[in-house]
Write a structure and sequence with these properties.
By secondary structure, this protein is mainly β. The protein has 2 helices and 8 strands. 13% of the residues lie in helices and 38% in strands. Pfam families: DPBB_1.
Length: 118
């Protein structure tokens, strides 16, 4: 099986269980953002702080805490969802500048991660 198929097989969407959303692990691309957004309102209504451990996800509820593991180096962090995105094909999460720094991919711009609700 090719790497692309393995990633696709590992990527899971949220599933509905008894009327609630139960998050499963998702694996895919991650990027980071901050410059140009710092100090502006995030989709949640709070002021975006590029130095906070936050992230954007397309559908998870605001306030959701996620464990994010960088698949390249094994570094792991915890972030809180406070914004919507990413809006680039193949990416599952946009991380704040601080979160990208902690994971160790800020200079590269993107990485491969797995995320799991905690």
């Amino acid at each position: 099986m090719t790497k692309r198929l393995l990633v696709a097989a590992a990527t899971a969407a949220a599933v509905f269980v008894s009327g609630t959303i139960a998050a499963q692990a998702q694996c895919g691309g991650a990027s980071w953002y901050g410059p140009g957004f710092n100090g502006k309102r995030a989709a949640s209504g709070e002021i975006f702080n590029e130095n906070a451990m936050t992230a954007a996800h397309k559908s998870l509820p605001f306030g959701t805490k996620l464990r994010v593991v960088d698949q390249r180096n094994g570094n792991a962090i915890v972030v809180t969802i406070n914004d919507r995105g990413p809006f680039v094909h193949g990416r599952i999460i946009d991380l704040s500048k601080a979160a990208a720094t902690q994971l160790g991919f800020r200079n590269r711009g993107t990485t491969s991660v797995c995320i799991e609700q905690i």
